[in-house]
Amino acid sequence: MIRYLFHRAILICLILMTGCTTSQKPEGTLGTVLVFSPGQENDIRAALIDIKGDTEIVLKEGIYRFDKISLQGPVNKVIFRGAHPEKTIIDFSGQTSGGEGMRVDNVTDFEIRDIQLRESVGDLLKVKDGKDVRFINVHTVWLGEPDTDNGGYGIYPVLCENVLIDGCYVRGASDAGIYVGQSINAVIKNSKAEFCVAGIEVENTINAEVYNNEASNNAGGILVFDHPGLKHDGRNVSVYRNHVHDNNYRNFAPAANSATGVGNLPPGTGVMVLRTSNVQVYENEIHHNNTMSVGILSYLTVDQDILQNNPEFDPIPRDITLRNNKITKAKTFPRTVEGHTLAQNIVNIHQMLTASGILSPEQGMPHILYDGIATSPGVNPNRLCIDETDEITFINLDFANDHTNIHFDKSLYICKLQP
Amino acid sequence: MKKVENIAHINTTINIIYVLCLVMAAWGCTGNTDREHVFVFHDRLSQYDFFEGELSELRPAEGVLRYELNTPLFTDYAYKARFIKVPKGQSIEEKSGELIFPDGTVLIKNFYYHQDERSPEMGRRIIETRLLVKQDNRWKAGTYIWDDNQAEAFKEILGATKPVKWTDHQGISQKIDYVIPDNNDCKSCHKKGGEIVPIGPKIANLNKMIHTGKKPLNQLQYLSAKGIIKGLEQIDQMPRLPVWDDSTGYTLNERARAYLDVNCGHCHNAAGPANNTALFLEFEQQDRFKLGICKGPVSAAQGSGNLKYDIVPGDPEASILYYRMNSTAPGVIMPELGRTMIHSEGVELIKAWIENLEGEGCS
Questions:
Q1: Mean pLDDT rounded to a whole number for chain B
Q2: Does the N terminus or the C terminus of chain B have fewer Cβ atoms within 10 A?
């Protein structure tokens, strides 16, 4: 009897102890699960304010209306989920304050999934200073005709570590649909971006993989670039097996033609690599992006005064590889280039080349545009590597010398080190 | 008999094991997540006994001290009555220029409007009282909304919007929907390196002359004499934040930089919520590019207003900084939270500062 009591005491003790470790629980179940229905918006806000971590917030099907919502850590382990991105919808129409619809700061192990966010005045979903952040089956959408008044970014993790964006859909962003900024380790896959100014952007990010995505009908499809003065420069980015097509939509960014902003992105851009280093672009289908199918540019193309304004900044891209891509385009520029500074620049260069007989009239702008600005003279000092079939054409625009030494010889950019 | 005693004894032992187990299990549980910090905000402001007599008179009780700042954060022209309570027998300590507040410190900030700014004696209406409480080395925020007859203020974590009317110092009647932030909004400004921090009470901003008795007195001296702060030496050597609207005592540059520090620098610093922007506006900042001079925006989207640079010396109209301070449109307005009106005097100050900045344009 006594022995039995002892055993029972110890057994209960062990059960109690192990019950605490979440790893013992079935996967997908966190310590606290809070389930809400439409109409409980204030309860959801209160739950986000009181959140202690190890919590799953579930929004049942329906439309939820908020001015804005936020989740402010530090907090660990939070899942925020709907039933389905077409069925659980958070609508921020008529937002009166705040810089974003949903903001999530300082959360470790955060997952948002199976939900749609739409129609905020600012960005739709900003996650800052997060670690292990996952966006799965999330839609961020501005409906209707893409408009300058739409918010800037759809899915926007910034200063995060370990980011996964999988199966997401973004539409209508007046800057970038998916925008990973200043982060370390990011994967963007199986997602779709359309009718944004920029479909997918990877900015000042170290170690990123962008694959199996579709970017279409944006002004530009996929952008990898660095801005000056941020926490760190980007590097090690792979962009592969994406379908980047028909990105000829007008650039409806509010800061049209602004020096460094996305307003400077030429309508008709497929993939653009600006400034940054060690970027691999391979095995993509890049079709009908009719101004600049692929661009490799220094920061000087978008801000020629950057060295005066920030002498410490090195504007030159390095170690950029293009290989095994399929690229086709129309011979004529999209109509959306009209009135756009950088795009019009490219059009003017093309006109100059046809007028002087360098390009025949039936040749459109080549597929790969390189601004040719390098750190030093000589052949390929910054290790641009192009390994593409003969059908894929190339132009060095020689921006540094007012386009006086334009050439079309991509064999100068031999890949010495195959990845 | 003895046997029974024995069993009882063993039973007690088992019971002790149970209790120990439960304690250990509970301890193990809390050990797995962040430790629970149990500070519970009261439901009503009066429960704290911060004030004596009529609550709305805000007459500080023993141990509660009023303080002032050289340059305050603008909040839709609201007046602010600030108090601090440090636990009895304890003091704030200075450590390499920072104030280290003891656990249990409460900062109490009351937001109010005069009926008529030209004659304050006509009365005022307190809208909200915000508390920052330090507990277990962390700050926590709580907000109390005053009832219409000014008898009590009630805890509200979700924020609210209150219509407010007053007559301003020029005799113009003003009417706004005053926004009381929710608890997460509080955190989105009061943050450094992920943790809540106070914005106002820093040495430089507290370092000012105040009028408590017959003759003016340095506030740091006053707080030291009261035992609120200890260890301050050579107060006359302490840094002083300029007074943003004192054009006789400070230069245009000093006033503008103080204004930017308090109104923008709490987010726009390397550890603040706007550290993704590369625009850093603390008073100490000397790097022209980080100050936004001829710096392109990073992620401003529609906030950039079709302008190329944060600040163009000599040209406020071409400067995003001025554009965003001079707007009330969500997505454009800066600061993002805490104001619905344009602070004309502040905007004028920054305009004049940009006009007089060294350098012409941005190439």
A1: 89
A2: N
* Residues of chain B with C-beta less than 8 angstroms from the C-beta of A105: 187-188, 191, 194, 273
> What are the boundaries of each domain within chain A?
142-412
Q: Identify all chain A residues contacting B11, using CB atoms and an 8 Å cutoff.
A: 5
Residue A105 to residue B157, Cβ atoms within 8 A: no
Residue B228: both structure tokens together: 């609120």
Instruction: Judge whether A141 and A164 are in contact, CB under 8 Å.
Output: no
Q: What is the ipTM of this complex?
A: 0.82
Chain A residue with the nearest C-alpha to that of B312: A309
Most confident option among A335-344, B24-33, B206-215, B245-254: B245-254
Question: What is the per-residue burial (b if ≥16 Cβ within 10 Å, else e) of B164-175?
Answer: bebbeeeeeeee
* Residue B168, amino acid: D
Chain B contacts of A16, Cβ < 8 Å? 21-22, 25
Distance from CA of B201 to the nearest CA of A (A): 23
Contact assignment for B302 to A96 by CB distance below 8 Å:
no
Which residue's entry shows tokens 């203020």?
B153
Question: With an 8 Å Cβ cutoff, are B330 and A96 in contact?
Answer: yes
Which of B276, B293, B363 should we substitute to test contact with A (largest number of A Cβ atoms within 10 Å)? B276
Q: Tell me if A159 and B296 make a contact (CB, 8 A cut-off).
A: no
Residues of chain A with pLDDT under 70: 1-28, 255-260, 416-419
Q: Which of A45, A229, A256 sits opposite B278 (nearest CB)?
A: A229
Q: How far apart are CA A293 and CA A280, in angstroms?
A: 15
Give the residue on B whose Cα is nearest the Cα of A147: B302
Q: What is the pLDDT of residues B134-143, one digit of tens each?
A: 999 999 999 9
Residue A277 CA to residue A3 CA, distance in Å, equals 69
